[in-house]
Design goal:
Length: 126
C-alpha cells in the first residue's frame, strides 16, 4: 500500500544522498584536481544518488493504487511528449541561431512538465 510519508522519507533520503555526493565530488575535484579517468569517475559519482532517486520513485509508483498510477502515467506521458517536442523544436531553432541546448537542461524541463502533468491529471480525475 502506498504511504506518502514512507515515499517522502525514501525520496528525501535519496535526494540527500545525491546532494552529498554532488557536493563531495565538487569539493574533491577542487582539492585534488584529478585528470583523466579519475576526473571522469569523480564527475559521475553523483549519478549513484540519481539511481537511488529513480529506485525510490519506482518503488513509490509500484505501491500506488490504480488511480494514483494512472495520474502518474498521464503525467509521465505528457512529460516525455512535451520534452520530445520542445527539444526537437529547439534543435530546429539552433539551425537559425538559437543557442545550443545542453543535455544537462533536458531533465529539469522533463521534471517541470511531469509536475504540470500531475496537476492536470489530478484535476481531470476529480
Amino acid at each position: 500500500m502506498f504511504s506518502i510519508k514512507r515515499y517522502s522519507v525514501e525520496l528525501s533520503g535519496a535526494l540527500a544522498l545525491y546532494a552529498v555526493l554532488l557536493l563531495g565530488a565538487n569539493a574533491a575535484d577542487r582539492v585534488f584536481e584529478p585528470d583523466g579517468a579519475a576526473k571522469m569517475a569523480l564527475t559521475l559519482l553523483p549519478i549513484l544518488g540519481t539511481v537511488i532517486v529513480a529506485w525510490a520513485v519506482l518503488r513509490g509508483l509500484r505501491r500506488m493504487d490504480e488511480l494514483q498510477r494512472r495520474i502518474q502515467f498521464d503525467a509521465i506521458v505528457l512529460s516525455c511528449i512535451g520534452t520530445a517536442l520542445a527539444t526537437f523544436a529547439w534543435g530546429f531553432a539552433e539551425g537559425v541561431g538559437a543557442p545550443e541546448l545542453r543535455a544537462f537542461h533536458v531533465w529539469p524541463l522533463m521534471a517541470v512538465l511531469w509536475v504540470v502533468g500531475v496537476l492536470i491529471a489530478q484535476r481531470r480525475y476529480r
